[in-house]
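pinned: reference chain
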Amino acid sequence: MAGENETTKRPATKKYSEDEVKAMIAEASRKAALEAVEAYKASQPQTVVQVAKDEYVTVLFIGAIASGTTVSMPKWGQINYAGGMLDIPKKEFLQGIGVQVNNALLRERQIIVLSGLTDEERRRFGVDYKEGEYLTDKALYELVGYDTEKVCDIFTKLCDEHKRIVAKVYLTAYFEKQDKRVHRDTVKALNSLSKSVDKDGLFTPIIEDMGRKDAE
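pinned: its structure tokens
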């Protein structure tokens, strides 16, 4: 029979060279290593790394400044109007502490530190204010419109530097802006209180000018 005489054919077995065998072993080892690393990672607890937010020091400028001018503070930046505020990175604020201009502004209370320092840092830099001893930005702009009792109550609590700033506000309002809200009774009361800072009174120029106008 034909089938009995035919030789059964088997598929030929592929033979690999020595280099091919080495390459296959290397690839298998690489895959096994990668799988082992991934398995190790999966078995480890997940760690969440939190990056601390930048710390800032917020300062307020309380002082007289002419329109169109700026107050430049090395490391801190610039302010171009009374009542302006800046958020300064704490690292830069501390670097600027040693600058003469900045120190003078802090000492004269033209720059008020609102937040961002610890109690110990406030004591170290001389910015540990007592309640009511500095003007707020709101009071700075509305001061001249306050009645005598209210403005005198504010004035008595202020530090000497800010009492001088109040005088500058009134002098500017009276002589430069001819602000009709500057009343004689208020100015006289403030002048009397200010003699603790200046023996002649900080508001004397206004009182004298009002007297001259009365005599005309």
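why pinned: Confidence is low (pLDDT under 50) at residues 47-52. The radius of gyration is 39 Å.
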